[in-house]
Amino acid sequence: FISLKLMAKFWKPGTAVPGSSVDLERVIEGSNGAGSCMSFNTHLHLSISQQRQRLPIFKHRNQILYAVEKYRTVIIIGETGSGKTTQIPQYLHEAGWTG
Prior knowledge:
99 residues; two-stranded antiparallel ribbon; alpha+beta; 2 strands
């Protein structure tokens, strides 16, 4: 049994995610308080590969690929924005799991 749990942390909506370098800015529109949330990439100067390596999920890449190969079912738990949805499919593709 391998545990690949990423530390879950709670934060106040509208503030920066703990441990994240992404700054969020809330833009208030109109008098009714409705607004939208904008995200800024502070690592735009880095290559895509370097940006991917900065995601929290990256340090677990080899463990995830090992678990997928060894076990029929793998459950990944991690905080929002850690890279679960965007990076794991890419890791699987890079490892030859897609056709």
